[in-house]
Amino acid sequence: MIWLRRIRYALWGAVGIAGFLAMAIMLGWWTVDGPGARAIRNAAPASITEIGGPFTMTDQRGRTITDQDIRGKPTMMFFGFTSCPDVCPTTLSDMTGWLEALGPASEKINAVFVSVDPERDTVEQMARYLSLFDPRILGLTGTPAQLEQMARNYRFYYRRVPLDGGGYTMDHTAMVYLLDRDGRFTSTIDYHENRQTALPKLRRLLGAGSAG
Ligand code: NI
């Protein structure tokens, strides 16, 4: 049932958000948008040391990609799996639309899709799946251990859920992370967030990238 799945994704989103808020409170930092947000946001990046760090994965062309390879440009990063029925294709379509809407500026941002399903998402499967979306989207997969390391450092959730009648699906964090050019976490775009708020976030990220 699609609506049941939606509720489950929403709940995982809530878990993720609760985690962020707890961390934000711990670090004395808050993500806000709207009036007064700028000063807080500008003060934020130096203290956000909790999300990010090393990873080593393989892209859809079979190349080894590490955190060092995405430095130098800001990054939008999303987590999911290629047999996802709903959230992942929607978000990858959104990402494709954002890249198009950014025009030439889209060359100055990384778009990354991280598979949380290493068992089924082989390099070949990632290549096949990502051919449906903007070719600049970098698809990362790896061994279970590589994924675990990345999830620990980037604080995203994933969980295997058995299906009635065999097989499984994956629950996963549904937010898009925004990282600055030094790989530091700055904010998120939520699942199904509309273009009117998503695009300004990306433009701000790009602006901060070229100024710093
Ligand atoms: Ni998904």
Describe the structure.
This protein has six helices and nine strands. With 212 residues, the chain is an alpha+beta fold. The protein folds into two domains: 2-42; 48-207, Glutaredoxin (3-Layer(aba) Sandwich), CATH 3.40.30.10. Strands 2-1-5-4-3-8-9 form a seven-stranded mixed beta sheet. It is globular. The chain starts with a helix and ends with a helix. The relative contact order is 0.19. Mean pLDDT is 85; it is low at 25-47. Nickel (II) ion binds next to helix 3.
Highest CATH level, the class of the largest domain: Alpha Beta
How are the strands ordered across the major sheet?
2-1-5-4-3-8-9
Could you state the CATH homologous superfamily of the largest domain? Glutaredoxin
Strand content: 15-25%
> The biggest beta sheet, please?
7 strands, mixed
What order do the SSEs take from the amino end to the carboxyl end, as H and E? HHEEEHEHEHEEEEH
Which fold name is given in CATH as the topology of the largest domain?
A: Glutaredoxin
Domain module tally: 2
Rounded to an integer in angstroms, the radius of gyration calculated over CA atoms is 17 Å
Distance between the termini: 47 Å
Low-confidence stretches: 25-47
The distinct bound ligands, ions and cofactors come out as: nickel (II) ion
Mean pLDDT: 85
Number of helices: 6
In quaternary terms, these chains amount to single chain
Number of strands: 9
Content-based structural category = alpha+beta
